[in-house]
Design goal:
Layout (H helix, E strand, L loop, with lengths): L15 H7 L8 H19 L6 E3 L3 E7 L6 E4 L11 E3 L9 E6 L2 E4 L10 E6 L4 E3 L6 E3 L5 E10 L5 E4 L5 E3 L2 E3 L12 E7 L7 H23 L7 E4 L2 E4 L7 H7 L7
Antiparallel strand pairs: 1-14, 2-3, 2-7, 3-6, 4-7, 5-6, 8-14, 9-13, 10-11, 10-14, 12-13, 15-16
Length: 269
């Protein structure tokens, strides 16, 4: 991808403006490198915790027709509806730039994107894509082990029947805690990868602000470290020997102050 085409990833834990302020960068000359570093730092934190920490859509693709917009605005509208679209879905279609995703659902006919489309997409059909449903093992109980959590919304649940078909299950009254989803009125048949769940899971702005603030602080600090590493000729996790004296440099891919925050979010199931 060309440098000018780099966009913030939908699962990023901070944004370009916050990173620029944190690094005390007064202009936009380093925005491409900084944006790339924000994405790398966010990915490193997600990998370390074995989770996608920001709320993301675990859904099937959704197509919406009759979309209109223009190249001067991030707002698009439809004469149909965006009822099945969720925030952080990526977007594809005529005139849609790579890296486009949904920032906000304004109402049933209006959504906000992170970047404007390249052309006016009059009566176009766009596809909105999540990360795909979670495919889980049924435990023969009313519980499922969710790989991503907290679970904020269950869009659909279906379980594979003995004949290979799928039966829809009712998620009403579901509750989740630390990766365990409980649906009181249902029993998920025991099996391997036989339960499909469409859901919105992860830390949601306005609901989990304290967790997101802690993760953003860790991400910004890691961005700072990565930027310094980029500018320093000696890499991380190495050492130097000067006149017989050995000097160890940073001995970890993630400094202890950052790891101290991040490790509290590690997936335990």
């Amino acid at each position: 991808m060309a440098g000018e085409d780099i966009q913030l990833m939908p699962w990023a834990l901070t944004d370009l403006e916050s990173a620029r302020d944190y690094m005390n960068i007064q202009d936009t000359s380093r925005d491409v490198v900084l944006l790339e570093t924000v994405n790398r730092a966010s990915a490193a934190i997600n990998r370390r915790t074995r989770r996608m920490l920001r709320e993301m859509p675990y859904t099937n693709p959704v197509t919406v027709a009759n979309i209109n917009g223009n190249d001067t605005s991030t707002t698009i509208t439809t004469t149909d509806d965006f009822n099945d679209v969720r925030e952080r879905m990526t977007v594809s279609g005529t005139g849609v730039k790579p890296g486009t995703f949904v920032v906000a659902i304004v109402d049933s006919t209006t959504v906000e994107l992170n970047i404007p489309p390249e052309v006016t997409p009059v009566t176009e059909t766009f596809t909105f894509t999540g990360l795909g449903p979670s495919i889980l093992d049924g435990l023969g109980t009313d519980r499922l082990i969710m790989p991503e959590y907290p679970t904020n919304e269950i869009i659909s649940i279906s379980a594979m029947a003995d004949d290979g078909g799928f039966s829809t299950m009712d998620p009403t009254g579901h509750r989740s805690r630390s990766g365990v989803l409980v649906v009181p009125q249902e029993v998920f048949p025991e099996g391997s990868q036989n339960v499909y769940v469409e859901h919105m899971s992860g830390f949601r702005p306005g609901v989990h602000d304290s967790q997101l603030e802690a993760l953003e602080s860790a991400c910004l600090r890691l961005v700072q470290v990565m930027m310094l590493d980029r500018e320093t000729p000696v890499g991380r996790g190495t050492g130097v020997n000067v006149q017989g004296f050995g000097f160890g440099l940073i001995d970890s891919a993630m400094p202890k102050d950052i790891a101290g925050i991040v490790d509290s979010f590690k997936r335990w199931v």
